[in-house]
């Protein structure tokens, strides 16, 4: 049967997940813009840049890459769900394995099946997020096809910008659903700690959240896309070398 520690660990898992999702909905944390929000601005730059060229093969390749990545994770989620159902049919073998492992609190068949069911629910949630994201990226491709050519853009700038904003909004929403599905996949790694004991479950969940927070707000990937002055070995007179970061962070010596 489930113990009090199991319920506490499960509540901790849900609260930490909700808290991290809430944190990413804000624009800053400790005065730092998240990687997700910074990439939203780069999506906007990309779409508006496409208005200045008639040949959009590069853009369609980017769209295809986004769709293919989403489809890959959707397929992976389906395989993971199937693996969970296969695990339910091997309960006796799992009992034999757990009996020989130290520090494993095995609460019986019912508790084990509930844990596997929760893991399958996580992968099911991820699949629906990835599936919807794939559909939205498909819609985004259609909206992108409605962006006018350069000569039409020059004749009606307002209409062109409206078309670009529709693409941007759809792309951002699709990316948001993809990120939520990927977050569920990451947290499923922390969830695996529950099969050892509830204390390990809370520890692995905290570690996963710590790693995700670091990557969002304190990683080299985030610094790579923030606005900063050009490197010292870049000789373009049109660029100002004293351009500050729009994030308020000193990047001197990091680029």
Automatic annotation (TrEMBL):
InterPro entries: DUF599. Pfam families: DUF599. The chain crosses the membrane at residues 7-24, 71-91, 103-128, 191-212. It comes from the Bacteria. Keywords: Membrane, Transmembrane, Transmembrane helix. This is Putative membrane protein. The lineage of its organism: Bacteria, Pseudomonadati, Pseudomonadota, Alphaproteobacteria, Hyphomicrobiales.
């Amino acid at each position: 049967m489930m113990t009090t520690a199991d319920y506490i660990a499960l509540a901790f898992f849900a609260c930490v997940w909700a808290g991290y999702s809430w944190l990413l909905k804000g624009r800053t944390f400790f005065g730092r813009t998240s990687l997700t929000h910074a990439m939203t601005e780069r999506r906007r730059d990309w779409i508006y840049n496409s208005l200045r060229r008639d040949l959009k093969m590069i853009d369609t390749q980017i769209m295809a890459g986004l769709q293919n990545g989403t489809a890959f994770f959707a397929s992976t989620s389906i395989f993971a769900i199937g693996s969970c159902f296969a695990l339910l049919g091997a309960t006796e073998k799992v009992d034999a394995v757990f009996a020989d492992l130290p520090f494993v609190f095995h609460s019986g068949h019912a508790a084990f099946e509930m844990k596997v069911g929760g893991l399958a629910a996580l992968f099911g949630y991820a699949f629906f997020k990835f599936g919807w994201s794939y559909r939205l990226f498909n819609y985004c491709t259609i909206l992108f096809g409605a962006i006018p050519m350069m000569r039409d853009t020059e004749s009606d700038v307002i209409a062109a910008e409206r078309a670009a904003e529709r693409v941007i909004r759809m792309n951002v929403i699709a990316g948001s659903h993809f990120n939520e599905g990927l977050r569920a996949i990451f947290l499923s790694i922390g969830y695996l700690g529950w099969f050892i004991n509830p204390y390990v479950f809370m520890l692995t969940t905290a570690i996963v959240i710590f790693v995700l927070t670091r990557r969002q707000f304190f990683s080299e990937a985030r610094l790579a896309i923030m606005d900063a002055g050009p490197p010292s070995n870049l000789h373009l007179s049109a660029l100002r070398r004293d351009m500050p970061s729009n994030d308020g962070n000193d990047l001197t010596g990091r680029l």
